[in-house]
Specification:
The protein has 11 helices and 6 strands. By secondary structure, the protein is α+β, with helices and mostly antiparallel strands. A hairpin with a 7-residue loop joins strand 5 and strand 6. Helix 10 runs antiparallel to helix 11 (about 440-475). The chain is elongated. It starts with 13 loop residues before the first helix and ends with a helix.
């Protein structure tokens, strides 16, 4: 949420804002018939200047927006190799190497790769010892007198029914595949969090600089007001008002320091740094990243490259393997055993081979319900995959809309509103020195310039955040 700067006397009147929106709509409808050359000198009021800037921005933004829609595929081109780019990429590399969230996902993914061989291996064999006496419970009773006496050793091996081991291995492979996709999801989320936090810190740094700059301007205005008051050209309340605004800016500056420190703490946690480590350096300038987007191609990239969707599809395949295993459990499991039995010295030794089968006798209470459970879980996985598909596509579309909107708004600010606001402030300051405008008008222009610059940097940060989110969805981390 953007914090309001200044006192309540600087709020924009709702009716004026509504009329401005209506006027801007009329200008957009008629922009093909309007001349692109405007005489700014005739726009003497702030409202007229703003409307003229809106018209110019939309006239400039519309062709560029249409051109970007006509180009196929997605291709990102940084406007220039700024220092912030290397800063961000260095932080991204650090997060990929040291983030505890990625480390946890990576070790879990590696652990899942150990499961397929385990579940595809036969159960451990059993070794048994036997001692059979005749006529007495004492050991070796009947050793020389009875052919029933024996001491034996043997082993047995459980053998699952046909195809069960292979199906369990396939299910474990799908689980390991889902784990790899979960790792990729975590990596992309961390990268997106690093970039989003970085750009928010950039905005907070710029806002703090703007507050300090505006504070210095207000100090100059306060000195001017005091000088005007001493010569009888201004009122004492103008001096008090300027001092009040300076005090308000002190509060705003302290609150901005608080937000910067909190964001620094969050970024350190994402990177895996301790909180007592030095603060992370943030670049001084950011150029808006230009993306050429084709909606159809973008959806294709999202559907094919999104690790969230790949993980969901792996979970569906894993649930299908569980259904196959549950159906195969109708077949019996087997047991093979062999025993050697040593008898007395006057008798022949015994050799015994055994073969057993585990019969699913209570299939209507176990196997049938297990199949029904597996089928229901498979349908749940399919519904979850479809839900994630809709969510990913919705999020992607929202970010594209945000990107396109911020591109147009950035042009509106940089090529229209901010230059006109600066000109208005300079004009108001010169007029106040000769007592042609009152102090409240001068103060309003200063606050308007601050607000517009603040909104510009907020829009620029939101633009880069939208780019980062799009890259996270389609799998482009460059």
């Amino acid at each position: 949420m953007m914090r309001r700067v200044g006192g309540g006397s600087h709020r924009i009147d709702a009716r004026t804002q509504h009329r401005s929106q209506q006027a801007a709509s009329r200008i957009r409808r008629d922009e093909k018939q309007m001349s692109r050359k405007f005489h700014f000198r005739r726009l003497t009021s702030w409202r007229g200047l703003a409307l003229g800037a809106i018209a110019i921005a939309f006239a400039i933004a519309a062709p560029a927006h249409a051109e970007s829609q006509a180009k196929p595929g997605i291709d990102s081109e940084p406007a220039s190799a700024d220092a912030h780019t290397s800063n961000v990429e260095a932080l991204v590399a650090e997060a990929l190497a040291h983030s505890p969230m990625i480390t946890a996902a990576r070790t879990h993914s590696e652990a899942l790769t150990k499961v397929p061989k385990q579940v595809s291996t036969l159960p451990d064999p059993q070794i048994g010892l036997q001692h059979f006496t005749v006529g007495s419970p004492q050991p070796f009773s009947g050793y020389e007198t009875s052919d029933f006496y024996y001491s034996g050793v043997g082993f047995s091996q459980d053998i699952p029914g046909p195809g069960k081991l292979g199906l369990r291995a396939d299910q474990a492979q799908k689980a390991a595949e889902a784990g790899r996709h979960a790792l990729e999801v975590q990596q992309r989320q961390v990268v997106e969090q690093v970039r989003e936090t970085y750009f928010n810190l950039f905005y907070l740094k710029k806002l703090l600089s703007l507050l300090l700059q505006t504070q210095a301007e207000l100090q100059t205005i306060a000195q001017t007001a005091e000088s005007q008051y001493h010569v009888g050209m201004a009122q004492q309340q103008d001096v008090f008002k300027a001092q009040l605004e300076l005090t308000t800016f002190l509060k705003e500056i302290e609150m901005q320091h608080e937000e910067v420190d909190q964001s620094q703490a969050n970024l350190k946690a994402i990177l895996g740094r301790e909180q007592d480590s030095p603060n992370i350096e943030i670049g001084d300038d950011i150029k808006a990243t230009e993306l050429r987007l084709d909606d159809r191609r973008l959806r294709e990239l999202g559907l094919s490259n999104s690790p969230t969707l790949r993980q969901a599809r792996a979970m569906v395949e894993q649930s299908q393997a569980a259904v196959d295993i549950a159906k195969r459990d109708y077949l019996p499991d087997f047991n093979v055993g062999y025993t050697y039995e040593k008898t007395g010295p006057k008798f022949k030794d015994y050799y015994m081979l055994t073969l057993g089968a585990k019969i699913p006798l209570y299939f209507w209470r176990k196997q049938r319900l297990a199949v029904e459970q597996a089928v229901l879980e498979r349908e749940s996985a399919r519904a979850d995959a479809y839900s994630k598909r809709l969510s990913v596509m919705s999020n992607l579309q929202n970010q594209v809309i945000a990107l396109q909107t911020t591109q147009r708004v950035l042009k509106l600010y940089s090529e229209g509103l901010i230059p006109q606001a600066n000109a208005t402030q300079e004009s108001a300051l010169a007029a106040y020195r000769v007592s042609k405008v009152d102090f409240q008008t001068l103060l309003s222009t200063v606050i308007d310039v601050l607000r517009l610059r603040q909104e510009y940097y907020r829009t620029l940060a939101d633009h880069e955040i939208a780019v980062a989110k799009i890259r996270e969805i389609i799998g482009d981390q460059s």
